[in-house]
Task: structure prediction
Amino acid sequence: MDEVPAGPASPEPRRLSLSVVIPVYNGGRDFECCLRRLRDSDATDFEIIVVDDGSTDGSGALAESFGARVVRHDTPQGPAAARNLGAKLAQTPLVFFLDADVAVHRDTVSRILGRFRADPGLSALFGSYDDLPTAPGLVSQYRNLLHHFVHHQGVFVDDARPAKTFWTGCGAIRRQDFLDHGGFDPGLYRRPAIEDIELGYRMTRAGLKIILARDVQGAHMKRWTLRNVIKTDIFQRGVPWMLLMKRSHVQETDLNVKPGQKVCVAAAGLLTLSLPMAPFRPWALVTVPLTFLALVALNRDFYGLLARRRGWAFAIAAVPLHFAYFCCCGLSVVIAEVLWRFPGLSPESPGINVIDGFRKDPAEGTSVPAPAGNPGASADRVRRPSRWTKT
Result:
């Protein structure tokens, strides 16, 4: 590999070890903070590739001022396509995907490099948001702390544990493995959704190793509103993930869909159905408090984290938000089940199956090769109600 500048923090040319790929659309001040924190990293042997996905606020020029290599889409094409382009242009064997609203810790890049150097069999890793989110307000603080909590559950050895999925908010992957498996699917996921999870399933099914490293962290600066939370949980996460699990025949039991969380979704549904019946049915008078106490008990560790970070008043105020989260999960299951059983309800669903690299038209009963070079031509796409994966 040629000697090339190693990024904005490096005064002299050095041999690169890692490429940071950041898709951005009107990143604003959060994006500036993201770049500044990268510049202040304790590692310098990396390049920064920014894919400006049709921004109108000067995000590309800002990235160039920090020494990043910038490529542009004239019109927004979505983060899946942007990351694919960034990875294709990367000059190193490792690609670190980072969201434009995430500020890495000083040692994040060096920790990533250390794990890949120590384990030649590692294909990908991802980390988490830290427990010090910067965006103010109950909704933003709750949401970002929930993500931190979920990604820190499980049995860790040396701050790492196996994972079946991938995450691009703060995740790294061997470039060749990424390219060999077709990258993300911009056809199926034109807007932010679960393109990273879908890629992770393909990779782990092929026998590649992915880990969740809880010592790889960054601060999430996103400001959430209740409306954005509900939209994200149902249309950008819940429904697409449920459909993906059905297409992939995956029985997921990790992260947001652990058995305990599934029980919470059922309890939230029962509580929702019981509340309007409470004035009229004695059984509902008993069910309401019991299910509420069950939800609190099942999530006591999470509420404990909220209390330690923001106080008990904050933790109590977050309980209704957490209840709404479980309701969104339950509604996602219902919508996905309906779409799976009645795919014709989605007007964009073409009724085309892709199985083992072949596209099959059920009406004709014949198979033809899937389009060559299409990152979305994966074995996972059995049905495609795309209205619910392109939100």
In short: DSSP finds twelve helices and 14 strands in the chain. The mean pLDDT is 84. The two ends are 41 Å apart (CA to CA). The longest helix spans residues 312-341.
